[in-house]
Amino acid sequence: DVGGTKLLQGAGLTEAGAVANVHESPLLAQGAEGRVFVSRLESIFGDVEVVCKQRFRKKYRHPDLDIKLIARRNTSEVRVMLRARKLGVRTPVLYHVDRAACCIYMEYLRPPRWSTLKSFLAQLESDIMGKKPGRDNDLKAIAKSIGCVAAKLHIGDIIHGDLTTSNILVDAERDTECLSDDRWNLALIDFGLSGQSTQNEDKAVDLYVLERAIESTHSYIAADLNKSIMEYYEQEGCPAAQKSLKSVLRRLDDVRMRGRKRDMVG
After folding, report:
1. In the predicted model, what is the mean pLDDT of residues 176-189?
2. What is the pLDDT of residue 259?
3. pLDDT of 24-53, one tens digit each?
4. Which pLDDT belongs to residue 265?
5. pLDDT-based confidence at residue 183 (cuts at 50, 70, 90)
6. What is the pLDDT of residue 44?
7. What is the mean pLDDT of residues 162-174?
8. Is 66 a catalytic site residue?
9. pTM
10. Left if phi > 0, otherwise alpha if psi is -120 to 50, otherwise beta: which for 175?
11. 127, 157, 162, 224: which one is catalytic?
12. Spatial separation of the C-alpha atoms in residues 244 and 155, rounded to whole Å
């Protein structure tokens, strides 16, 4: 659409003519809605290694309607990623949107420098269980980083929609001189279910998804980690923002209660 095109061009992105050639590599992930793979992109930015997210065409939909729906979802995802960056949340740099191929090309946050929070916490949990010195401090630092990132999103009325430990990346090359309070560099990925909302309920559900993801895979450190995340979450921003975040945490108590009832009923 016109609004989406202006947004992309304003961010230095284009929807036509930017890509001379794309070389596909093996898949990183694939789901019902699309696939993610690594590519090399020859464009005005030079020859760069990128991640491509491609949404699948749906044959049961009219072709014209299908293209419009996919283009709208891609534009919405790009818009949220750009807004998150303006709020100070690290996301992959966006390079190109190809409407015809239903693709978004973005920065490749390459392992081993970047790893998922899930794998980072697995190693951290193992080290803490083994009484490795200094890892308790790392637990507090990662909790502060997670809480601050989530708070920045919610202060800006952004809902991630799938805030799990698989969709948060941790930078192993932490530069403590450039980071205040000894935090870890984090990046958020996969904004396919994201959106904007001022509702405390939506923000609380975001936090609940994160809590459950941590509890399901890191039970030994989950209680302390989740408690610390929420403490740092409500401390982010100005007093007015903190008041708003406290309201989200109060709604989170209701969401937790509904979740426990569902677990009991089955």
Report:
1. 73
2. 81
3. 567 888 888 889 999 887 766 677 889 999
4. 56
5. confident
6. 66
7. 92
8. no
9. 0.86
10. beta
11. 162
12. 8
Give the per-residue pLDDT at 100. Answer: 84
* 172/157: higher pLDDT: 157
Beta pairing partners, 53? 36, 104
Predicted confidence band of residue 208 (pLDDT cuts 50, 70, 90): very high
Quickly list DSSP for the chain. -HHHHHHHHHTT--SSS--SEEEEEEEEEE-SSEEEEEEEEEETTEEEEEEEEEEPP-TTS-HHHHHHHHHHHHHHHHHHHHHHHHTT---PPEEEEETTTTEEEEE---TTTEEEHHHHHHHHHHHHHTT-TTHHHHHHHHHHHHHHHHHHHHHTTEE-S---TTSEEEESS--TTTSGGGPPPEEE---TT-EE---HHHHHHHHHHHHHHHHHH-HHHHHHHHHHHHHHHTTSSSHHHHHHHHHHHHHHHHHHHHHHHHHHH-
- The number of beta carbons lying within 10 Å of the beta carbon of residue 196 is 13
Q: How far apart are CA 150 and CA 148, in angstroms?
A: 6
Residue in this structure with the two tokens 């696939």, named with its chain if needed: 35
More confident of the two residues 254 and 22 = 254
Q: Which tokens in the block code for residue 137?
A: 């401090």
Cα(first)–Cα(last) distance of the chain, in Å?
43
| Pairwise CA distance, residues 183 & 148, whole Å | 10
The C-alpha atoms of residue 27 and residue 40 are separated, in whole angstroms, by: 13
Residue 11 neighbours by CB distance under 10 Å: 16
